[in-house]
Amino acid sequence: MPEHASEVTAAEIARLAGVGRAAVSNWRRRHDDFPRPVGGSDTSPTYELAAIERWLREQGKLPSVPLYERLWQRADSHPEGVPAALRIAGSVLMLVREDPRLAVHYSAASDSELADRLPAELESALAARFGPNHPVRLPEQLDEAVPLLRTAVKFAEDVGPAQTYEFLFGRYLDANPRQFVLTPPGPAELMAALAGERPGSVLDPACGSGALLRASGATATVHAQEIDPELASLTALRLALATDPTVRVRVGTGDSLRADAFHDLAVDTVLCHPPFNDRNWGHDELGYDPRWEYGFPARTESELAWLQHALAHTREGGTVVMLMPPAVASRRSGRRVRADLLRRGALRAVVALPAGAAPPHGLPLHLWVLRKPHPEHRPPAELLLFDAAGIPGSGAEKAPWFAVSSAVLDTWRAFDRHGSVPDRPGLNRTLPVIELLDDDVDVTPARHLPPPAADGGAAELETVRDRLAQTLRRTADMAPAPPADGEPARWPTTTVGELARSGALLMRAGGGGIAPQDGSAAPPAVLTEHDVIAGGGPTGILPPGRAEGPAEEPVLVEEGDVVVPILGGGGVARVVDAAIAGAALGRNVYLLRPDTGALDPWFLAGFLRGTANSRQASSFATTSTRIDVRRLQVPRLPPAEQRRYGERFRTLAAFEDALRQATQLGDQLVQGLYDGLTDGTVRPG
What we know:
Layout (H helix, E strand, L loop, with lengths): L6 E3 H8 L3 H10 L8 E2 L4 E4 H10 L8 H10 L5 H17 L2 H8 L2 H20 L15 H14 L1 H15 L9 H11 L6 E3 L6 H6 L4 E6 L2 H14 L5 E6 L13 E6 L29 H11 L1 E11 L10 H9 L3 E6 L13 E6 L10 E6 L13 H18 L9 E5 L24 H22 L14 E3 H7 L2 E5 L16 E2 L1 H6 L27 E4 L8 E2 L8 E2 L3 E6 L6 H8 L2 H6 L1 E3 L4 E3 L5 E3 L3 H41 L6
Parallel strand pairs: 4-5, 4-7, 5-6, 7-8, 9-11, 15-18
Antiparallel strand pairs: 1-3, 2-3, 8-10, 9-10, 11-12, 13-22, 14-19, 16-17, 16-19, 20-21
Helix pairs in contact: 1-2, 4-8, 5-7, 5-8, 5-9, 5-12, 8-9, 9-12, 10-15, 16-21, 19-21
């Protein structure tokens, strides 16, 4: 394949050079020698990658192209599309993983030799790994993919075949966010942990990108089915690279409810994040299907159809963990199925997750844990109900995910071992099944938990009131003095992008990094965009890494850094203090690390917060506003003047923190009084 076959868009050129897209438009207008388009359209032209790289180097705008970026560009410019490129690259990476010596051979072979021999080798390896009816379809000729394969093998030498494919697959999923419903790593890991440490053979009948099966740690056979043939092929390769070569991977395509690819299969564990609210799940065609052992689901109860499909594929005593929308716990159309699940002891626990744990992010989704009943065993008499919203956080902040996951797991494991756990108001309750078998059969956790008592009663509320009074007095003392009049400033300005190029500050984007898997060190907490906006401590967690290849290092914040969230309209910039130093930088947050000899951090953060500054650096999409950090402006002032402004901005930030604390204490006092008056622990007098 000739080098010029790889093409890039203006947005991809901007990413290569580390600039905004407007800069690429300026280069096209101002430089006569800028490469001409070779494809695309008038509104979205594409350019020859090699020519663009050459021009950027000649202009001093690109010292070197990162290998990972070159790899993605080769995949993105494949003539048959990114999915075809990923199927080819993933198949070669699978071969290299099983025999690392092939990497040297492929690097030394000629283009024609690779194109001639690889199709047969890859097809043989795919059949051996997945069986003869595997979903990974490759082209008969690989001439156009040879540069992609060479780059993938070279990248794999540094990070490993599995991480190389994870990078490509992750980029593809990120580029098509509306096309896929993904299970985030945190809930996926929790679901796998709820299934037990020895999952045995595992099935996911609606596998999507394979997140649940990847998290399962299966040691026997992995079975997956996905309705989208293209996604099924990519997920099959992901699972093959993520699991031990001794683990059999079987991936089917099609609608699991209408066309079950594993009709006679019984496994130890089923993990599933099914489609939600699907009225076209097959109600009319499947009325007499033997899977409806607990009752024929209504047309509006597609989730209960998926649940019974999962139980039908589970061995007696096997475990099913399902991610469900909260309405399934209470809809009247599903009460008969819920009642039979309870009577026969199949449903063992319902866990309400905090809102935002998984898409759709506005709903507090539920986890249902089920066990396939043994016909000769007496059904369990109690059900565990757990509401993660009751897990205490820090002040008014919600609990971080690692606290949620640990609390859920500890409670479930104790319940599973002993059959019961002590009730905790507002958090969990072990409820006799007989109490749920009423007209509603409502298993929503929050509706059955004893309400949390007002913390500490009247004495604790008096303490909160005293703290609020002290905070209000301190806030009044800190209120800024009346400002002095002045004329609009006419000082010269520079941009953050120019400061970064001159070395006055270091600019890094957050969102990278994975947690180590060897237990050598506790992973740092993640400073999310919500944390920056709310002024709280880090609440996020790093996604789990894998054993293959070196772990990607996160960006860690240091005291004196300035962090800026880029979504939501701007107006926020925060100086990192000792309390949050060492946290990892989350997605959609930029780090600016000033050279303190040239730039005062508080001066920088203060001017970045100006409304006019944020407005001129914003781009507007249909659903959100995004800040281009490089375009934010800063006055050119001498160090002494910077420090004078910086000290003023520092006092404003302290005043803002005091206001925030007063608001939190006021909310706590008001809600505590409402709760105390309504539950009788506080009297009106």
